[in-house]
Amino acid sequence: MNYFLDVLKKYFVFSGRARRKEYWMFGLFYLIIALVFAIIDYFAGTRGVLLDVYTLFVLIPVLAVTVRRLHDTNRSGWWILISLIPFGQLVMFVFMVSDSYAGDNR
Q1: Local structure of residue 2 (DSSP, 8 states)
Q2: At what angle do helices 49-72 and 20-44 cross, to 10 degrees?
Q3: Is 68 exposed, middle or buried (0-12, 13-18, 19+ CB in 10 A)?
Q4: Average pLDDT, stretch 43-57?
Q5: Distance between CA 56 and CA 104 in Å, rounded?
Q6: Most CB atoms within 10 A, among 7, 14, 22, 94?
């Protein structure tokens, strides 16, 4: 849970690096919380309002941690735009599971 909170503390921080563990643990807790909100929405009959609000609240930190993860693999944060093209999400997945770059970033 600390990984999730650490990413939220860096709400608008797009510089620096995010290790694989930080990125994937954040993703795990994001998914768990989203599922809880989806279940609550289902039983409350709110048609996904809680899940939508949560998703909007966490949108900027998701983008920020993804850009920092790209920096950790020695890529520019602009590579995040590749996920907008067909099969680009597969390329992003490969980037996200790649090992960290040992040297300093460009």
Answers
A1: H
A2: 170
A3: buried
A4: 94
A5: 33
A6: 7
Give the predicted TM-score (pTM) of the model: 0.90
What residue has token string 């997945």?
Answer: 93
Query: Which residues have CB under 8 Å from 74's CB, separation 6+?
Result: 101, 103, 105, 106
Residue 57, pLDDT above cutoff 80: yes
What helix, strand, coil percent values describe the chain, rounded to 5? 70, 0, 30
CB atoms within 10 A of CB 3: 19
For the chain, the C-alpha Rg in angstroms (whole number) is 15
The rounded distance, in Å, linking the Cα atoms of 20 and 8 is: 17
CA distances from 17 to 25, 50, 89 (A): 15, 31, 20
What element of type H or E holds 41? helix 20-44
